[in-house]
Design a protein that fits this description.
- The complex is a heterodimer of chains A (566) and B (587).
- With 566 residues, chain A is mainly β.
- Chain A has two helices and 44 strands.
- In chain A, strands 2, 3, 6, 8, 10 and 11 form a six-stranded mixed sheet that branches. In chain A, strands 13, 14, 16, 18 and 19 form a five-stranded antiparallel sheet that branches.
- In chain A, β35 and β36 form a beta hairpin.
- Chain A is flat.
- The N terminus of chain A is likely disordered.
- Chain B is mainly β.
- Chain B is built from four helices and 41 strands.
- In chain B, the strands form nine sheets. In chain B, strands 18, 19, 20, 21, 22, 23, 24 and 25 form an eight-stranded mixed sheet that branches.
- Classes of the chains: A mainly beta (566), B mainly beta (587).
Chain lengths: 566, 587
C-alpha cells in the first residue's frame, strides 16, 4: 500500500509489475478546499511553425462537450500557451480554430487531446499541431437557374476502389452552418483535410429515408456538376490548404414521392382513433428495427385516417404516437413503397401493460455526495419488433415508487439514463423478491406489481497507467478503455471518460465495489490518418481489477508493440 | 408555430375573412381567385410570391388553438395550392415555411381561419445582410455566431425579432444573414440571444455590435424585402463580459428527473431577450450562468417544464444590475403555475338583434386571448404559455401554465364581425357572478380559477376608416391610436366598451366587434413610455387611463351612435392634437 502523492512525480511510483490484480488502494482525497495549482502548457503550431493568436480551450471531459470551457488561453507570438489554476480532473484540450485541422486522440474522432491531471501537477508539452484546412465552395441551382436555399450539401471522401465515405467536419460549428446553402444557393465548406471528394445535394433514395413534412417532391441525390450517377461525379482533388471554387451543382427536375395512407384504430374495438400523432420509420433490413424515425406534426382525422406524403421507395413501418403518459402503445404497420402510392394501412393501438414497483439505492445511506432518489433517471422498455418505440422514461415519486405503462408484450428491460449521477449503477431488478436476470416478461394488458429496482452507490476508483514495453507511448497513439463488471457482457454506463491521455494516464471513479475487467484498445495511428505513414499496430490488453469503496486501485496496463500476436 | 410578436393591438383588431380576401384581391389582381368549391371542413389556399407567381412545395402549417387541437402540415402543389381537409370546427392558425422567404400579411390581418375558408398567402423574398468580422489585428474572426436583431418594423414601430440561428462567420470571417423581414436591424457578433449548444471560444466575450459598438451605440441597418445590405463589417472587440450566476430553488419539485429548466435574461428597459439558457438539472446541481453580459439593467426569469401544463413552475422576474463586475448568488425560486378556466357562451336568446350575415358561429370557432396585466410578472406570451385559445364544443376553456400574476382575458378577436363581448364575470363570494372586465383576474401561485364566464352577444357594429390631419398639409404623429369611448353618462366603468386600435402606416384603422351604443371617437398618440415597450397593453385596462380617455373624448366631443349590426365604412377622422394629451413629436 502506498498513498497517492499530491504532486507531480506519480509516474515514478507507477512502475508496478504487471499482475493480474493490484490490490493497492489509496484513500481518496477530500474535496478540494484551496486554490488549485495544476497547470497545462504547450505550443500551438501550424505546419511546425508556432501559431500566434489561436484560442485554446480546456473543457471538462466528465461533462458533455456543450459545456462552456473550464479555461481559455490564447497562444503567444511563438504559439505558446499556458493554463493555470487547473484542479485535478479529466480534461479535453483543443484549439478553437474551425478553419484548421487538428489531430484526434480518441475513437470518437473529436479533435484535440485528453489530459488526465492530478492535483498540483504541471503538464508541459501538451502541444497542438494544426494543419491548414482546404475550402470547397460552389452554388446549388435548379433547372431554371434559381438558387436552392437552405439545401443541405453532403461531402463524401472518395476511398480506394471507388468507395465513398460521408465526411462530417468536427470543427465545433453546428454542421448546418457550413453545409447549408444561403439565399444565393452558395455553400462554403472550410477546414477540409486534403483528399479526393465528391459533393452532392438531394435525397439518397438508395437507402430508405423517412422524410417527414418535406414536400411531395424532392430532388434525387445529385452530384457536382449535374449528375445523379455517383460514378459520373467529378472528383475534386483538394491539396492541403487549397481552395476549390465553382463546385456548383445543377439539379434536374424534382421527383415526386408517393403518398401512404391508412387508419389508426383501437385494437380491441376497431374504432378509429381520432387526433393522434403518427409517424413512420425505415425498417433496417438486418435487425428489423426502425431507424430514421420521422414524426409528423399532423394528427389523425375524425375517421382515424392518416396520410404521409413524399415517401421515397423503400421498406418502412407506420405507427401511431400516443402521448408520453398514455396507457397506449402502437403496432407497426409495415409497408413497402415501390413505384406507386400505398393505401389501406391499418395501425392498431393497444392498451399496454404496466409495471408498478419501487426504487432503492443501496450503499447510499449516510454517504455525503450520494445521489438521492430524485436524481435517478431510468427507463423501462419492452422491445418488440411488432410495436413502435415509445418514450420509456419512468417518473419516480418522492417515496421511491413508480408506475410505468403503455408497455407492449415482450421482455421489459431496465436501463439507467445518461447523465448518470456519479457512483450510481443499476444493480438488479427483483420481482417479488426474486432477481430477474433477463428482464421481466410482460404479457398483454397485464399489471405487474412487486417490482423492485435496486441501484447501488459506490465510491471506488481505478487509477491507471498505460505503459509500452521497452519504450514510450508513440505520439500518434490512440487509446480507448472499456470497463465492465467481471463476468458480465454489459459495458458500464460510464460517466467518466475512457480515453487515457498521451502520457497513458487514466482515472475511472464512482465505481461500486467488486471485480472489473478493463480492456484497452491501443493503436499506433492518429485521426485523420496520415497517408503513406508507417503501418498501424493494434493491440488489445485486458486486466482484472478489484475495487473497494473509498479507495483508488492502482493498475498498470502494459502494451507490447513488438510481440507478433495481437 | 405561435405568433411570437403578437401585440395586444393585434388582439384587438379582428379581421373578418371577407375583408382579408378583399384586400388580397385588390393588391394582387393578376392571381386567380382561390377555389370556391372548398368543402366544408377544409381550409384551402394558395401561396404566391409578390408578383403573383405560384410557390410550389411550400410547407403550410394549419394548427388548431384548442386543448385537443388538430394539426396538419401540408405542402403546396405546382400551382401553389394547398388543402387541409377533415378539419373539425374550430379556429386554425395558418403559417408557412419557405426558406429565404417571409410571409407578409397586411397589418392587423388575422392568421386565424375557419374550415370552409380560402386563404391567399403572399411570400416575399427576405432581405440579406452580409459583411466580415475581423479582430483588432485585422485577422478574420472565424466561427462566431451572427445575429440580426429586428428593432423596428417596416412601419417604424418597435418590435423584436432575432434572426440568424445557426449562421456563423466562415474561414474568411465573412457572414451572411438572409430571409429577413423588412425593417431596421442591429447586427451583432457573439450574441447569446438565440442560445447555443456548441462549445465556443467567444462565450465569455461581450457581444460586439456593428460597426464595433455596444448595444447603445450600435449602427442600424434598414432593409426592404428582397434587398441586400453589404459591407456590414464588424471590428470584433473581444472584451470579456461579466457573468450573472446563481441557483434555482423549487419547493414544489421533488422529482427533478425528466424536466428542463429555461432561464431567460431580458433587458429591463424593453423586455427584449439578451440571452437564454436551457438545462436539464443534473443531480443536485441547479446552478445557472450567463456569460459575456455587458453593464446594464436586466431581469432574470426561469421556467421549468412541462411548459404548457399546470405541472410546470415559473419564477418572478428577478432584477439584476450589472455594473463593472460579475454578479453571483442570484437566487431564483420557482413557484407552481395556475390556470383560469370557464365557459364561453353565445347569447342566442336576444332574437330581436340578428345581423343578416352568416349563421351564428359555433363556440369552438371563437378565439380567446390572455395577456399579463402585471408589470412584475413574466410575460406569458414569451415562449411558453399559449396566448390564444379556442374553447371546446361546450364552450369550456382553460388557460394553463400561468405564472402568478394578474391577467386579462379577451375574446374580441372573433372571426365573426357580428358578435361582441357582452359580459365577463368571475364567481363572487356567494357564487354570484361579479364583473371581471374592469380589473384583471389575479392568479396566485398554483391557483386554479374556475367559473369564469364570457357572454357574447350578436349585433356588433364596426367602423373602418382613415385618420386625416386636422390642418391641411400637416402630417400625423407616430404610434397614433384610435379609441372608442362609451358616451352614456353611466358608462365610465363599462370597460368592455372601450375599444382601441393602432392606426396603420396608410393611416387606416378598424374598430371591430363593438357593442352598439353611443361613443366618442378619439385619436391620440401612444404615451412615450408605452411606445418603447414590445407589448402594448390597451390603455383602457387602467382605471385612471379610462378617466383620462373619457375626459379627453368628452372635451373633443366627436360622437357617433352605433346601431346594432351597423357597418361604418370610409369614416374620416380628423386628428387635432389634444391640449392635455401628449404632444405629437416627429423624430
Amino acid at each position: 500500500m502506498f498513498s497517492l502523492p499530491r504532486t507531480a512525480g506519480l509516474a515514478a511510483t507507477m512502475i508496478i509489475a504487471l499482475a493480474a490484480t493490484v490490490p493497492a488502494h489509496a484513500p481518496l482525497q477530500a474535496s478540494k478546499t484551496k486554490e488549485s495549482t495544476g497547470s497545462i502548457s504547450g505550443r500551438v503550431t501550424i505546419g511546425d511553425v508556432g501559431a500566434r493568436g489561436v484560442t485554446v480551450l480546456l473543457v471538462s471531459a466528465e461533462n458533455a462537450p456543450i459545456e462552456r470551457p473550464v479555461a481559455k488561453s490564447t497562444s503567444d507570438q511563438d504559439g505558446r500557451f499556458q493554463i493555470k489554476g487547473v484542479p485535478a480532473g479529466s480534461y479535453f484540450l483543443q484549439a478553437f480554430a474551425p478553419a484548421l485541422i487538428a489531430a484526434s486522440d480518441n475513437v470518437f474522432g473529436r479533435q484535440g487531446k485528453t489530459v488526465n491531471l492530478i492535483e498540483g501537477e504541471a503538464v508541459d508539452g501538451a502541444d497542438i499541431a494544426l494543419r491548414t484546412g482546404g475550402v470547397i465552395t460552389g452554388r446549388v441551382t435548379d433547372a431554371e437557374g434559381q438558387p436552392l436555399i437552405q439545401e443541405n450539401v453532403r461531402l463524401f471522401s472518395v476511398l480506394e476502389q471507388g468507395r465513398k465515405q460521408a465526411i462530417y467536419l468536427q470543427n465545433n460549428l453546428p454542421s448546418n452552418s457550413m453545409f447549408s446553402t444561403d439565399d444565393r444557393g452558395v455553400y462554403r465548406l472550410f477546414g477540409v483535410p486534403p483528399g479526393r471528394y465528391i459533393v452532392s445535394v438531394g435525397v439518397d433514395t438508395n437507402g430508405p429515408n423517412a422524410r417527414i413534412n418535406a414536400g411531395n417532391t424532392y430532388y434525387p441525390l445529385t452530384y457536382h456538376p449535374d449528375v445523379t450517377e455517383e460514378g459520373k461525379a467529378t472528383v475534386i482533388e483538394l491539396a492541403s490548404g487549397s481552395e476549390a471554387t465553382g463546385v456548383d451543382i445543377v439539379l434536374g427536375r424534382p421527383s415526386t414521392g408517393y403518398s401512404v395512407s391508412g387508419r389508426i384504430v383501437d385494437a380491441v374495438t376497431g374504432k378509429p382513433v381520432v387526433g393522434m400523432m403518427y409517424g413512420y420509420g425505415a425498417v433496417d433490413a438486418q435487425s428489423g428495427r426502425l431507424n430514421t424515425l420521422g414524426f409528423t406534426s399532423s394528427t389523425s382525422n375524425a375517421r382515424g385516417e392518416f396520410r404521409l406524403d413524399g415517401v421515397t421507395p423503400g421498406s418502412y413501418a407506420a405507427f401511431a404516437s400516443p402521448a408520453a403518459d398514455s396507457e397506449m402503445y402502437s403496432d407497426r404497420a409495415a409497408f413497402t413503397v415501390g413505384d406507386s402510392d400505398v393505401s389501406g394501412l391499418v395501425v392498431k393501438v393497444h392498451v399496454g401493460s404496466s409495471i408498478i414497483g419501487n426504487v432503492i439505492i443501496e450503499g447510499a445511506d449516510g454517504q455525503p455526495g450520494a445521489p438521492r432518489l430524485s436524481e435517478v433517471r431510468f427507463g423501462v422498455s419492452s422491445v418488440s419488433l411488432n410495436a413502435a418505440p415509445r418514450n420509456s422514461q419512468v417518473r419516480i415519486a418522492p417515496d421511491g415508487s413508480f408506475r410505468t405503462t403503455g408497455l407492449p408484450r415482450g421482455i421489459a428491460s431496465f436501463i439507467i439514463y445518461y447523465p448518470t449521477p456519479k457512483g450510481l449503477a443499476l444493480l438488479r431488478v427483483e420481482r417479488d423478491g426474486v432477481e430477474q436476470k433477463n428482464g421481466i416478461e410482460v404479457g398483454s394488458g397485464e399489471e405487474i406489481s412487486g417490482v423492485r429496482v435496486v441501484f447501488g452507490y459506490g465510491t471506488g476508483a481505478i487509477r491507471g497507467q498505460v505503459k509500452v514495453q521497452d519504450g514510450d507511448i508513440p505520439a500518434a497513439a490512440m487509446m480507448f478503455l472499456n470497463i465492465r463488471r467481471a463476468g458480465t457482457n454489459q459495458p458500464l454506463n460510464m460517466r467518466t471518460p475512457t480515453t487515457p491521455d498521451s502520457r497513458g494516464r487514466f482515472l475511472i471513479d464512482g465505481l461500486l465495489p467488486g471485480e472489473y475487467e478493463l480492456s484497452l484498445l491501443f493503436q499506433t495511428r492518429s485521426a485523420p490518418p496520415v497517408a503513406g505513414g508507417p503501418p498501424i499496430i493494434s493491440r488489445d490488453v485486458k486486466q482484472i481489477v478489484t475495487v473497494t469503496n473509498g479507495a483508488e486501485s492502482q493498475v498498470t496496463m502494459l502494451v507490447d508493440l513488438n510481440s507478433k500476436d495481437r | 408555430m405561435r405568433p411570437r410578436n403578437l401585440t395586444a393591438t393585434a388582439m384587438f383588431v379582428a379581421a373578418s375573412l371577407n375583408f382579408a380576401l378583399m384586400t388580397f384581391g385588390q393588391s394582387n389582381n393578376q392571381s386567380e381567385p382561390p377555389k370556391s368549391s372548398a368543402r366544408a371542413g377544409s381550409i384551402t389556399g394558395r401561396v404566391v410570391n409578390e408578383s403573383g407567381k405560384p410557390m410550389p412545395n411550400v410547407r403550410v402549417f394549419v394548427g388548431g388553438s384548442g386543448r385537443q387541437s388538430v394539426r396538419r402540415t401540408v405542402n403546396t402543389d405546382e400551382a401553389g395550392r394547398f388543402v387541409a381537409d377533415d378539419l373539425p370546427r374550430g379556429s386554425y392558425a395558418i403559417t408557412v415555411q419557405a426558406s429565404g422567404y417571409v410571409l407578409v400579411r397586411d397589418p392587423g390581418d388575422t392568421i386565424h381561419h375557419r374550415p370552409g375558408d380560402s386563404v391567399n398567402l403572399i411570400l416575399k423574398k427576405g432581405a440579406a445582410i452580409t459583411g466580415a468580422v475581423t479582430n483588432s489585428d485585422g485577422d478574420p474572426v472565424v466561427g462566431v455566431q451572427m445575429t440580426a436583431i429586428l428593432v423596428r418594423d417596416a412601419q417604424g414601430r418597435p418590435v423584436f425579432g432575432s434572426y440568424g440561428s445557426g449562421r456563423y462567420t466562415d474561414d474568411r470571417g465573412v457572414y451572411r444573414l438572409f430571409g429577413l423581414p423588412a425593417g431596421t436591424y442591429v447586427v451583432v457578433a457573439g450574441s447569446k440571444s438565440l442560445g447555443s449548444s456548441m462549445l465556443t471560444a467567444y462565450g465569455d466575450d461581450a457581444p460586439t455590435y456593428y460597426p464595433s459598438s455596444t448595444r447603445d451605440t450600435a449602427g442600424e441597418v434598414t432593409l426592404q424585402y428582397g434587398g441586400e445590405a453589404t459591407g456590414i463589417d464588424i471590428r470584433y472587440r473581444g472584451e470579456r463580459g461579466y457573468a450573472i450566476s446563481g441557483a434555482i430553488t423549487d419547493s414544489a419539485m421533488s422529482d427533478w428527473s425528466n424536466v428542463s429548466v429555461s432561464v431567460m435574461l431580458t433587458r429591463a428597459s424593453n423586455d427584449v431577450p439578451e440571452a437564454q439558457a436551457f438545462f436539464q438539472p443534473r443531480g443536485s446541481e441547479r446552478a445557472f450562468g450567463f456569460y459575456g453580459v455587458t453593464d446594464g439593467d436586466y431581469y432574470v426569469t426561469a421556467r421549468r417544464g412541462p411548459y404548457q401544463s399546470d405541472d410546470g413552475a415559473a419564477s418572478k422576474r428577478i432584477p439584476v444590475k450589472v455594473r463593472g463586475h460579475d454578479v453571483t448568488g442570484v437566487g431564483i425560486s420557482l413557484a407552481p403555475l395556475g390556470s383560469i378556466a370557464g365557459r364561453l357562451m353565445l347569447d342566442l336568446a336576444t332574437k330581436d338583434v340578428k345581423c343578416e350575415t352568416k349563421p351564428a358561429p359555433a363556440v369552438e370557432e371563437t378565439l380567446m386571448s390572455i395577456s399579463s396585466d402585471d408589470a412584475d410578472s413574466s410575460d406569458p406570451s414569451s415562449r411558453f404559455a399559449s396566448v390564444l385559445y379556442t374553447p371546446d364544443k361546450t364552450g369550456d376553456f382553460v388557460f394553463q401554465g400561468l405564472p402568478a400574476a394578474s391577467y386579462r382575458l379577451d375574446s374580441r378577436m372573433l372571426l365573426d364581425e357580428a358578435w361582441y363581448l357582452r359580459a365577463m364575470t368571475v364567481p363572487g363570494p356567494t357564487n354570484t357572478p361579479v364583473d371581471a372586465s374592469s380589473r384583471g383576474i389575479v392568479v396566485r401561485p398554483g391557483q386554479r380559477i374556475n367559473g369564469v364566464r364570457f357572454v357574447l352577444g350578436e349585433g356588433a357594429a364596426s367602423i373602418r376608416g382613415r385618420v386625416v390631419a386636422g390642418k391641411e398639409g400637416a402630417s400625423l404623429p407616430d404610434r397614433l391610436r384610435v379609441h372608442l369611448v362609451p358616451a352614456e353618462p353611466n358608462s365610465a366603468e363599462d370597460t368592455l366598451r372601450f375599444i382601441e386600435a393602432e392606426v396603420q402606416s396608410d393611416n387606416s384603422f378598424k374598430l371591430l366587434n363593438v357593442a352598439p351604443g353611443r361613443y366618442w371617437l378619439l385619436a391620440r398618440q401612444l404615451p412615450e413610455e408605452e411606445s418603447k415597450k414590445r407589448l402594448v397593453r390597451p390603455q383602457a385596462w387602467n382605471a385612471a387611463a379610462r378617466v383620462g380617455l373619457r375626459r379627453e373624448a368628452a372635451a373633443s366631443n366627436v360622437a357617433i351612435d352605433l346601431k346594432p349590426c351597423q357597418r361604418v365604412a370610409d369614416y374620416q377622422f380628423r386628428y387635432t392634437p389634444s391640449k392635455e394629451g401628449p404632444q405629437p413629436k416627429r423624430p
